[in-house]
Amino acid sequence: MSDMSLANLLKEERRFAPPADLAAHANVTAEAYEQARADRLGFWAAQARRLTWATEPTETLDWSNPPFAKWFKDGTLNVAHNCVDRHVEAGHGDRVAIHFEGEPGDSRAITYAELKDEVSRAANALLHLGVRKGDRVAVYMPMIPETAIAMLACARIGAAHSVVFGGFSSDALATRIKDADAKVVITSDGGYRRGKPSALKPAVDEAAEKAGTVEHVLVVRRTGQDIAWNDTRDIWWHDLVAAQPTEHTPEAFDAEHPLFILYTSGTTGKPKGILHTSGGYLTQTAYTHWAVFDLKPETDVFWCTADVGWVTGHSYIVYGPLANGATQVMYEGTPDTPHQGRFWEIIQKYKVSLLYTAPTAIRTFMKWGDDIPAKYDLSSLRILGSVGEPINPEAWIWYRKHIGADHTPVVDTWWQTETGAMMISPLPGVTEAKPGSAQRPLPGISATVVDDEAREVPDGAGGYLVLTEPWPSMLRTIWGDDQRFKDTYWTRFQGKYFAGDGAKKDDDGDIWLLGRVDDVMLVSGHNISTTEVESALVSHPAVAEAAVVGAADETTGQAIVAFVILRATASADDETLIGTLRDHVGATLGPIAKPKRILPVAELPKTRSGKIMRRLLRDVAENRQLGDVTTLTDSSVMDLIQSKLPAAP
Ligand code: 6R9
């Protein structure tokens, strides 16, 4: 960014202190920041003791060969033992680990004792198929308990899993199988989505053909739909796994043993296989889940609505909650099947106390209307989390008010596939919350905002988010490409991790995320953040969602073009509305941020993990042929948007 004027357009004055009852019994107090500041490595060494080690580590961090970190390198542990067996050994075998809720309404409760048996059986099954320590296994599954069981079974025998989101195509799956050289794929016939069985196995058949590395396909029967069968390669889970003994002795692996590879698509080029290892990853996922959700494993019911195919599902459905012995809900389907109150019905049914979801979902609920959650008893909720995108202050307020009874803290957690676990977030018993800000690096984490020359910006200024010290759950490399790992993250600002996000510090030094730097707009020489203009639009009662892009403009360099989804209560035919919205943005952020064009649309293009794809909207705004749409949830959205567009003025 050539100038740093983007900062502090948005003024957000609302503040929310932690509820007194929560603060009085909170797992983490303000002292944690002090302790970690005084001795960062000592702090993480203490957190590592949450885990059960076969050999206790004596060295916390080896950073002798940056950016290749080794955490707890002389320690050994088994990740699955930490997530399952040790809770049974501690007498919690009867505690429910997973309350599974299928989309058609079937449900299943799995205790820690049952989970231990299932994971052990699945581990024996993988061994039977010839999977060994150090191998890779691809997992292409719907949101069912067997997905978590498969991942833990891999961890138990020291094979790295590579989970590929079930919505990806056979091509995407094939590329990932091939890149990781996976010899076994675990899948299912299909899963339930929007009231219908959707198929998974045909994509695996095609991908296995293309990749050429696959020896076996282990298939869970979920829907019972007809599938093609290859007798020499395919085997049913219920035939193989059910026949295995429940005895399996977990072996201890090095702390730096690979745990999983997870691919991120990014905007260009071949997907990056983000590699995570064992001890540091599990330490930070367990600590952050316990600290940020103030987890009380005996009484809380946690629900993370992400798909296990994303990092949020890896860290906060599988590893963090299970390492902590938590009880959680796992839901298979979509929020509006069979009706738009499904999430709230699930919270009421299981008395969910800790909810973790994404801004895209929250804005959708806002659009559907306040009356829907109002019909359910949500009084069990005590903390609400957000992740995935910047949360607009108005969406934050709505979440707290309509879901959290105007009482529960909202924790906006910033992190990435690459960081493995939460990095910047309020602490619910400590932080005076500011709607829309992730606020402060967690204890033990070092993050700041720098300018083009890698200089830390003063409070009140903006620039790029960087991480200045290694952290336990950091990616270790890009699978098979150390050079790309260095180039992508460690070269832009020497010695610092470049996250790719724009950010600003407010006058208190709190951090506000401003969106991906590729999305920042340059208007008449001013850097303007897409996030801030979107938040200004969403703060108008007529707007539920907004996506803003900079389109090439002869006079101003770029001009702001906004795509808005109106709330059910507003009308796109209201001729004065567009002018009102422009003025509203002008009044909120200043005249420079007034969109040149505002276009009401019915949907916005989103990635499959729910992030707005501004790149495609830029193509539309600049009357260009659309770029790659393969990562879109629904590519017909773009046809719809284009057909509604008036010609550019
Ligand atoms: C966990 C996850 C990472 C990118 C990240 C940023 C955006 C995530 C955010 C947020 C603002 C938050 N992001 N959480 N932006 N506030 N609380 O989403 O991982 O899929 O790898 O995406 O998501 O842009 O760089 P991943």
TrEMBL record:
Tell me which residues bind ATP: G388, E389, P390, D412, T413, W414, W415, Q416, T417, D501, R516
| Annotated ranges, domain Acetyl-coenzyme A synthetase N-terminal | 30-83
The EC code for this enzyme is: 6.2.1.1
Report the residue ranges that make up the AMP-binding enzyme C-terminal domain in this protein: 532-611
Top-rank taxon, per record = Bacteria
Report the catalytic activity.
acetate + ATP + CoA = acetyl-CoA + AMP + diphosphate
Molecular-function GO term, any one = ligase activity
Pinpoint the AMP-dependent synthetase/ligase domain residues. Answer: 90-471
Q: Which residues bind Mg(2+)?
A: V538, H540, V543
The protein's UniProt keywords, in alphabetical order, are:
Acetylation, ATP-binding, Ligase, Magnesium, Metal-binding, Nucleotide-binding
Q: Which residues does this entry mark as bearing N6-acetyllysine?
A: K611
> How far does the signal peptide extend, from start to end residue?
none
For activity, the cofactor(s) needed are: Mg(2+)
**What role does this protein play?**
Catalyzes the conversion of acetate into acetyl-CoA (AcCoA), an essential intermediate at the junction of anabolic and catabolic pathways. AcsA undergoes a two-step reaction. In the first half reaction, AcsA combines acetate with ATP to form acetyl-adenylate (AcAMP) intermediate. In the second half reaction, it can then transfer the acetyl group from AcAMP to the sulfhydryl group of CoA, forming the product AcCoA.
| NCBIfam families linked | Ac_CoA_lig_AcsA (TIGR02188), PRK00174.1 (NF001208)
State the PANTHER family in the record: ACETYL-COENZYME A SYNTHETASE, ACETYL-COENZYME A SYNTHETASE 1
HAMAP family for this protein:
Ac_CoA_synth
Instruction: State the similarity comment.
Output: Belongs to the ATP-dependent AMP-binding enzyme family.
The entry's protein name is: Acetyl-coenzyme A synthetase
Q: Which organism is the protein's source? A: Actinocorallia cavernae
What's the name of its gene? acs_1
